Amino acid sequence: MDIGGGPKLEGMDNAMVALTAETRSIRLEIAGFQSQISGLDQRVTTVEAQAASWTNRDQELLHLCSRLTDVEDRSRRNNIRLLRIPEGTEGAEIPSYLRDMLPKLTDTTFDPPLEFQRAHRLGPKRQDGKGRPRPIIACMLRHGQARQVLQTARTQGPLWLGTLEIWLSADFSRETVERRRDFLSLRPRLRHLNVKFGLFEPARMWITKNRESRTFYDPEDLRMFLEGLHETSQTMETTAQPSPPPRTHRAKP
């Protein structure tokens, strides 16, 4: 009598050995996966730290760019820009020309007389002499006189040199000019919403609505604010629409 099980027991032993080997292989694979996952976790942590560092650097860069723009605008505070003055009208000495021309252009007597550190045309001279006249940029000796000239020009309205209208403006950095242009592009929407507004130097928009005043330094913030006002006004108009009068039924004769 065979009590050892014979071939059946031997087959079970072989199956157990194979199962043990397969289990060991699976454990090794799991260990490898765990190692890979651990490595991925470390890489993700590193990437997140780098992303946070980049975000901080972006904010620092934006802050530095803002400060640089402010410094550039401050360095131009004594400058005035004149547009549409025909080429060659100024002669050889632009400061002397402006000293005599600006009082006549603005119909104002400046006391003391205007003084300039330097003045010149912007850009290379056109060889053919055609096209728009190059702008003149003039740096005045005193900041107060630069403000006085600009204020006088705004008060006088259109400035005429003979039959030619001359444009006179302050001098700003490119970033500030673009921001002012974005603010001014919102004027139609401001008027449509009955919002009082004003653009102040260098580039900030002041508005008043329902006796509440706010100042915006970013055109995008003002655009989002106006969108909210538009939605609110539409809601109020819809709510305020009168309901149709009830129908009355006439009695039959």
UniProtKB/TrEMBL annotation:
| Region (Disordered), start-end ranges | 232-253
Q: Per the record, where are the segments of Polar residues compositional bias?
A: 232-241
Task: Supply the InterPro entries for this chain.
Answer: L1_C, Transposase_22
Would you say which domain of life the source belongs to?
Eukaryota
Q: Which PANTHER family match?
A: L1 TRANSPOSABLE ELEMENT-RELATED
User: This protein is called what?
Assistant: L1 transposable element RRM domain-containing protein
